[in-house]
Amino acid sequence: MTSAISNAAAMPNAQAAQATKAGAPRANPVRSPAPSHDGSLSPARRRVLMAGFFLLVIAAWHFAIVLLQVSPLIFPGPLAVARALLESIQSGEIARHIGVTLYEILAGFAFGAVFGLILGAAIDQSALLEAVLYPYVVAFQTVPKVAVALLFVLWFGFDTTSKVVITATIVFFPVLANTIVGLRSAPRDQIELMKAFTASPWHVFRMVRLPHALPYVFAGLDIGIVLAVIGAIVGEFVGAQAGLGYLILQRNFSMDTAGMFAILVVLSLIGLVLHSVMKLIARRVIFWTDAFTDLSRGS
After folding, report:
1. Where are the domains of the chain?
2. What is the DSSP letter of 151?
3. Which of 55, 107, 157, 244 has the highest CB neighbour number within 10 Å of its CB?
4. What is the pLDDT along the chain (299 residues), one digit of tens a residue?
5. Contacts from 277-280 at CB under 8 Å and sequence distance 24+?
6. Domain 96-299 has CATH 3.40.1010.10
7. 129 backbone dihedrals φ, ψ, rounded to 5°
8. Which helix (H) or strand (E) holds 2?
9. How far apart are CA 84 and CA 160, in angstroms?
């Protein structure tokens, strides 16, 4: 049964290959012209351009602060931010709070992603769930997350539980929407061919729907892992006893603008690392598509 279904799924590709082989002209011994340049950049050139742009932004930031004589309480210069970041690392203050925020980000992302995947697959398979449940999911997504965060802190307390729930609610919807769209992107002719060979719904899902949905799913996961950083910080702003968001509020009260910028730099680095990890996983899992390879080239 499984071998017949696999042969059926591979039949169009095999027939196309035979037709191409039969109708293809004989190899021309004349040397073919070199492929045209597609405008893409090599990884080394990309890194050089990124580093050059970064240095240009830092230099423009520094000289703008000096020439305009901006107060460091309003907008600190890059040297002051670097000094504050180094002091926070040496004192261990960043290390004490970064673990809490990372736990909230990863735990909230895990719960939101799993729930989004499961509910997305269920809605795709059930028209009743789509008609009854999906409108309420969209309505909940339109509610401002700051207002919901206040309720979650009231319900779950000031510890990490409320931050994980807030992060999960922010991650949930992108994963859900991309899962539904991805599962419905499978070609209709392949699904009908599988059914003609008496394939069960599970075989259709595993061999046709899921492979076509994976690029969409990973796009939703990539969006979700970045939004998870925002969700954790929003939760810590509303009410927390530890974390990078809590540390930002502390430095805001003490008018330490350079220290606030230093924590923002750390949060940006966390987001970039998580984004790169998700791209790397996507390239390993869905290796047959270039959707993530092109964006990750040179990283």
Report:
1. 96-299
2. H
3. 244
4. 444 444 444 444 444 444 444 444 444 444 444 444 445 677 788 888 888 898 999 999 889 888 888 888 888 889 999 999 998 888 888 888 999 999 999 999 999 999 999 999 999 888 888 888 888 888 888 888 888 888 888 888 888 888 999 999 999 999 999 999 999 888 888 888 888 888 788 888 888 888 888 999 999 999 999 999 999 999 898 888 888 999 999 998 888 899 999 999 999 999 999 999 999 999 998 888 766 654 444 44
5. 277/225, 278/218, 278/221, 278/222, 278/225, 279/222
6. no
7. -65, -40
8. helix 2-23
9. 27
Residue 74: both structure tokens together: 């309003």
39: left (phi over 0), alpha (psi -120 to 50) or beta: left
Q: Output the CA–CA distances (angstroms, integers) from residue 96 to 33, 89, 92, in the order listed.
A: 60, 10, 6
| Measured distance CA(207)–CA(217) in Å, rounded | 16
Distance CA 214, CA 283 (A): 11
Please, are residues 176 and 137 in contact by the beta-carbon 8 Å criterion? yes
Considering the entire predicted model, what is its pTM? 0.78
Amino acid at 100: V
Distance from C-alpha of 136 to C-alpha of 134, rounded to nearest angstrom: 5
- Structure token digits, residue 188: 């209709």
